[in-house]
């Protein structure tokens, strides 16, 4: 038997494939919304990746054209703040007798004798961020008491600096 011509065989194959697909259509219709959503999400993710890659390439090219900032203009640090300027005409308090201040035993006795500030009894247990979170609720007098207590005990520069700045802010707001 002689084989049928190629176009006839192709047409028969197409007809059989169409019938098979028609039989599977009800099953495929149930999953069609999920498939469409999945493909749409994949397409959007691919698009986001391509946009990100283009932005990275653009950043690489542009970074060579302008010098990097050493320090952003919006970043401020405690060390950057200048100390208060004292003029020649400003009276300076005479230094107190510091003979007892050099004695470590006297300092220790003074530190042990002082009680924690009433405004913040847990002051000794607070870290710098924990203290910062509580400062907004305190009055200027309470802050002064904390500052005096800190200076008499640990005299940590970060704590005293933060307390001084908060006191100045509270007074400026009053």
Automatic annotation (TrEMBL):
Highest taxon, organism lineage: Bacteria
Region (Disordered) residue spans: 61-118
Biased composition (Acidic residues): 70-82, 94-106
DUF8129 domain segment(s): 125-168
Any matching Pfam family: DUF8129
The protein's name in its UniProt record: Lipid droplet-associated protein
Source species of the chain: Umezawaea endophytica
């Amino acid at each position: 038997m002689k084989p049928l011509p190629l176009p006839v065989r192709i047409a028969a194959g197409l007809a059989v494939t169409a019938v098979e697909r028609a039989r599977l259509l009800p099953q495929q219709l149930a999953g069609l919304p999920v498939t469409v959503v999945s493909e749409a999400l994949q397409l959007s993710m691919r698009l986001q990746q391509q946009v990100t890659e283009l932005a990275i390439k653009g950043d690489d090219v542009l970074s060579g054209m302008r010098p990097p900032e050493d320090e952003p203009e919006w970043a401020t640090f405690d060390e950057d703040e200048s100390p208060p300027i004292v003029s020649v005409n400003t009276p300076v308090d005479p230094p107190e007798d510091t003979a007892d201040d050099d004695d470590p035993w006297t300092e220790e006795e003074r530190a042990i004798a002082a009680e924690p500030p009433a405004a913040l009894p847990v002051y000794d247990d607070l870290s710098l961020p924990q203290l910062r979170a509580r400062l907004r609720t305190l009055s200027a007098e309470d802050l002064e008491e904390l500052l005096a207590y800190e200076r008499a005990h640990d005299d940590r520069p970060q704590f005293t600096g933060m307390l001084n700045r908060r006191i100045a802010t509270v007074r400026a707001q009053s």
